Q: What sequence folds into this?
């Protein structure tokens, strides 16, 4: 492209040749100038719109401000809704945790006045918010704290479940141990071990203990279990065997009558028979045995353990 320049001061016409590169550079420069002017004008309008008393400009600035404020309000409301849901879940978890804590408290034997789940614990300390750089917690920081607390509550609930299961298992096992005296008498006529047989006069091993009492005196189960024998035995007379699990079996012999049958599930302390003098017996009494894995054990060990546990519970 050639441009011819004419002017009265020029003695002759001059020509300027423009190439494609010159045209492209000029167009780019023009576009840059337009963009810079637009940005400058946009900044000046919104920077000084409040000072410039132009209704149109003021409306544009107000609309932009309201739009930004609306986006912030929407973001805040959405986050508050999420946190409210999370807070509701935590409150439900805390209710479950309180109920679980009370059950564990009852299983462990802790008195309510020693630890009350319904009372808030005392708290206090030095106020450091005034000396901190920023005492206001942001939404993201609060959300992280809320999530951490929710996880912590869930972990504690799982832990308390394990503790409750363990305590429940221990309590069930303790109820299956023959630690209740089967007859309400203060002494026994014959203990566990070697003795003089009352019929033969020779030394014999006595595999249980004898509780003398009048005929018809109630006999109770020393622990919960299942009746595996309820029959008449030539030596034990009316005999009752109860399986308590863990290879522990108790025997109640010489009864006048049996109140349960094979297969019955009996509770700890349940009336299962009455004292008599059936079988090989010199008088009304209960012959009580405890077998562990088929081997006779001294019933006194179990009964003394039960008495010690009862004394401990009553002292609390």
A:
């Amino acid at each position: 492209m050639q441009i011819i320049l004419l002017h009265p001061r020029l003695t002759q016409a001059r020509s300027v040749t423009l190439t494609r590169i010159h045209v492209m550079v000029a167009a780019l420069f023009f576009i840059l100038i337009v963009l810079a002017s637009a940005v400058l004008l946009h900044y000046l309008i919104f920077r000084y719109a409040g000072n410039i008393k132009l209704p149109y400009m003021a409306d544009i600035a107000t609309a932009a401000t309201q739009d930004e404020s609306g986006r912030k309000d929407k973001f805040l409301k959405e986050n508050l809704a999420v946190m409210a849901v999370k807070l509701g879940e935590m409150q439900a978890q805390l209710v479950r945790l309180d109920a679980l804590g009370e059950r564990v408290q009852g299983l462990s034997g802790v008195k309510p006045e020693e630890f009350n789940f319904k009372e808030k614990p005392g708290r206090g300390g030095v106020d450091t918010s005034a000396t901190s750089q920023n005492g206001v917690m942001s939404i993201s920081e609060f959300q992280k704290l809320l999530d951490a607390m929710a996880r912590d509550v869930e972990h504690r609930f799982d832990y308390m479940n394990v503790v409750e299961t363990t305590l429940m298992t221990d309590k069930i096992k303790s109820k299956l141990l023959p630690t209740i005296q089967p007859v309400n008498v203060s002494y026994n006529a014959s203990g566990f071990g070697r003795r003089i047989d009352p019929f033969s006069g020779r030394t014999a091993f006595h595999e249980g203990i004898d509780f003398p009492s009048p005929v018809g005196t109630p006999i109770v189960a020393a622990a919960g279990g299942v009746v595996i024998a309820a029959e008449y035995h030539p030596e034990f007379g009316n005999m009752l065997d109860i399986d308590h699990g863990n290879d522990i079996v108790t025997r109640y012999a010489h009864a006048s009558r049996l109140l349960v049958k094979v297969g019955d599930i009996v509770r700890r302390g349940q009336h299962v028979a009455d004292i008599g003098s059936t079988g090989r017996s010199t008088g009304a009494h209960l012959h009580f045995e405890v077998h562990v894995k088929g081997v006779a054990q001294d019933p006194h060990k179990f009964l003394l353990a039960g008495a010690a546990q009862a004394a401990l519970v009553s002292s609390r």
The CA atoms of residues 243 and 249 lie 5 Å apart. The longest helix spans residues 55-108.
